[in-house]
TrEMBL record, chain A:
Keywords: Oxidoreductase, Pyruvate, Thiamine pyrophosphate. GO terms for biological process: branched-chain amino acid catabolic process. Its EC number is 1.2.4.4. Pfam families: E1_dh (PF00676). Its cofactor is thiamine diphosphate. It comes from Kribbella capetownensis. It catalyses: N(6)-[(R)-lipoyl]-L-lysyl-[protein] + 3-methyl-2-oxobutanoate + H(+) = N(6)-[(R)-S(8)-2-methylpropanoyldihydrolipoyl]-L-lysyl-[protein] + CO2. One of its GO terms (molecular function) is branched-chain 2-oxo acid dehydrogenase activity. This is 2-oxoisovalerate dehydrogenase subunit alpha.
UniProtKB/TrEMBL annotation, chain B:
The keyword Oxidoreductase applies. This is Alpha-ketoacid dehydrogenase subunit beta. It comes from Kribbella capetownensis. Gene3D superfamilies: 3.40.50.920, 3.40.50.970. Residues 6-181 form the Transketolase-like pyrimidine-binding domain. The keyword Oxidoreductase applies.
Amino acid sequence: MTTVEERLLPSAEPVRLIDQDGVQHDHPSYQLPHREALVGGYTELIKGRRFNDQASALVRQGRLAVYPSSHGQEACQVAATMVLRDGDWLFPTYRDCVSIVSRGVDPIETLTLLRGDWHSGYDPYARNVAPQSTPLATQLTHAVGVAHAARLKGEDTVVMALCGDGATSEGDFHEALNFAAVFHAPVVFFIQNNEYAISVPLARQTVAPSLAHKGIGYGVPGERADGNDLAGLLAVLGQAVKKAREGEGPQLVEAHTYRVQAHTNADDATRYREDDEVTPWLERDPIKRLETYLNEQGWLDDTVREHAEAMADQVGTQLRDGLMPEPEVDPWELFAHLYTEQTQQLREQAAFLRDELAREEV
Amino acid sequence: MTHMKISMAQALNQALRDAMKADDTVLMFGEDVGALGGVFRITDGLTEEFGEDRCFDTPLAESGIVGMAVGLAMNGMRPVVEMQFDAFGYPAFEQIVSHVAKMRNRTRGKITLPMVIRMPYAGGIGGVEHHCDSSESYYAHTPGLTVVAPATVADAYTLLRRAIELPDPVVFMEPKKLYWAKEEIDLTEGQPGIGTAVVRREGADATLIAYGPTVPVALEAAEVVAAEGRQLSVVDLRSIVPFDDETVCAAVRRTGRAVVVAEASGFASVSSEIVARVTERCFHSLAAPIRRVTGFDIPYPPPKLEKYQLPGVDRILDAVDDLQWEDS
């Protein structure tokens, strides 16, 4: 018979199966993922890192309006989708492009929001990926609704709902966890705690022992993992997804990671934190440690490495080629999508713009 | 459906019942809508008839209610939610403005949200603080929403059925003080649909433009004026968005004079929008500036004082008298 605390509180330390030196540690509750998952995950990390760095470079070239990078958080990004099945749903934020792409969404369509040619560029139903949400935590209650609808339809869908540490201060975070718990909805709430909400550190968001501790207040089991350890994340998130799918209700997972770059290219992190704080986190890089571990195991031969590099090059080329031409925008689209049946007023306003543009051409 | 005398509350209840019967994906949820049947009894008996999965109570959190409805609508359901009182709906404002209204546009029509936010609204029931706002202007100002306000029992039935059938989100404003007003009606979807205003009374001298709770007041005022020898048209907007410019402007052009009657505070409101658009379109037909009879620009008053805020017959008569008759 387990106590409420044993069932709902996270482990004392974040679950870590491979440490920053690439050394494997046994854990009483979690198994190391098998070789294929780790090797496959390695390739996804390399691709994700390239995506981040290429996208940041394209901002500097004026090809994207802005890019909130998940550089350093790629293990979280990749693990969140690796544990899902085809019919499952992902609810991403603006910082989760790598997750969206690793779910199989077209990279250029993923970047529509940040390129600025429309708000959301991909078909959410093609890969069951909700539009990226900018207002913090607001997407989490949608995740509950999607999960509840699936249950009503008798489907065993699981919904992976992403948010950051700052979002846990929003009311919608609270309401989503509570609603999910009351309706027993199969949602995995996955917090990427990267220590910063733009400039504000975690200490100003909460004095809770950890963000995963917040689950107990809603009767939701919380767990915490090293956010830069792909192995630990796959184990923890995999188990959370399994529990949700098997009818155990919502799960809360906090990944401890770090935003090694600024909030976006428009931000200046030197105004609010010292380099000394950032440096140790570079040593905890998710790719470096997995690489070390796989090398030690003899699982990272030239074939794997070359394949990963080739895939990353492909991502880089895809982004450069896809974002190089100036996107075609259609002013009529401004009026086209608001209502299934367009209102008379919007027809008139579209006609006004059409007329204005026609006069400009003369 | 048979011809019968029922209240607006009963008509709304029947509309929900019939919609839930017609379509298994229609869900009704919110605060106290289950066993209690809603504080205004609009959902009376629905849980009993359709079960806990179809009509259910939620935790007491309006943002969560609307947010969950968004997710349900994304995944094949047609949720209808109740905000217990208009002024309790503000925690959901972020969801309504940032997601409900924008989802279709931001996804280029890939996601449509067939959902209805039912909102008991406006005053006249002696409600204490935070129970009686007229919040329609906030929603009407938000592109992507459809905003409906029935004024008759028959319209309550038809418009709610149509709102539930609509593929897009609707804010459905139910005038609280009309919940108990009874009418002899044919309970069918016989009334015009959303987006069509109706001329409730024909008259050649001036037009009263009203919606929701002020329609019966306008009709009463027109009766009184008729006894004094002037004939007023009364236009019932029925839906604020889409706005039926054609019907409204045709009525104003026929009469050359108009008064807009609304409970909400007048500043930056639906009533100011009506004056602006009618003036833009009908300026040369107007014999006098359009007048407004609205609530004052004050927070909704306590019960003992609300009579000073609500547009009544006398204020409408005064406004009609002010339409520069001596100049024509």
